[in-house]
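Q: Fold this one first, please.
A: Sequence and structure below.
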Amino acid sequence: MAGTLISDYAVDTPNWTELLSSMEKQRKGKMALSLTNYNNSNLPAIEAGSYLEIAGALYGFVVEEAISGAAITGNINYIMIDPITITAEWTLVAPIWSPSKNGWYDAGEAKRYIGGCYRNGANYSDKWVYHEARSIKGLTGGLADLVLGRSGVHIGSNTRSTDGDQVIIGVGFKPSIVIFHAADDVASNQNWSVGFDDGNVAKCVQNRYNNTETVRLEFNSIGITRTSVNWILGLITTLGADGFTVLWSTQGTSIVNFTYLCIP
């Protein structure tokens, strides 16, 4: 399907309808906005001079704007702008992309999301601002990179020593893939694994038998093997709306400490 000519007015033609229509289309989804403390772990705010379009209207912040409420520790926290109060606020609810508005919005498409960060206690890390359907992420130290922006990513950790199901929740979205890094509870054993799991395919590389052998496992994404009769292995059986379920099998005694990265 062909596109639509928005305007074709001459510079010397006083056609305000054409001019305003052109300006309206150009600014839809516009966001020239920055966060303070972008390259450190301090609490961010909306930087003075920032402006953005929300549902057809243009808003700006002449002075630095604090973000109301409190970011929740241990979570990815999103920042959204309320066009009624023209204030910024924290939320744990992930945004929805609005093609008609060319931006990230809440479910009612009233409040526009501008970015977010991960909070761990007093540290606010991995700050990002949205750029169209992506985000620009500022890592502590000043490194900027294009990253997944629709739902962010989630990092967590846990431990396990018994067989059966382990339900992991609090991710904030349904992951499409989970990356595991696991280590033996006894550090001197030097057993570890790195694996990938999408709920259907599970694979990992495992250093086992107390750092004497490295192998690839085709049907497990995580596990620690101390000896041939002391091991714990796992794989994802379910990817849910807020996390995933790992099915563990064990023999003898082994304890695994693991970190996971969920990607939407």
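Q: Good. Now the second chain.
A: Here it is, same layout.
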Amino acid sequence: MATFVLRNGEMVNKATGEPMLTDEERARGPQAPQVMGFQPYNCPITGKEIRTLGQHNANMARHGCVEYNEIATPIGGKIKNHAWARKRGLQVSEEYRDTATAAKGALDA
């Protein structure tokens, strides 16, 4: 594993003297994970304030609730309705495009 030292205000490889970052890497800026805080809310069932993700998960389990995005749909969350998709600027899922085109043709006629 390479060892880096500070020489003339720049981090360089101790053995070779090559810079730790290339010019391209330096131009990108620092890379860091996105961290989002938990937004406290009042439980709609009990009215109790939920302040942490752990409290949220426990509260959901206690009341037999699931996150909205975890709900299974009959067609697996795929878009089937052509008019609905067009209104929202979306595309119909690949396996439903033929039926959507047929439905659109029927509406245009």
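Q: Anything worth noting on the second one?
A: The mean pLDDT is 85.
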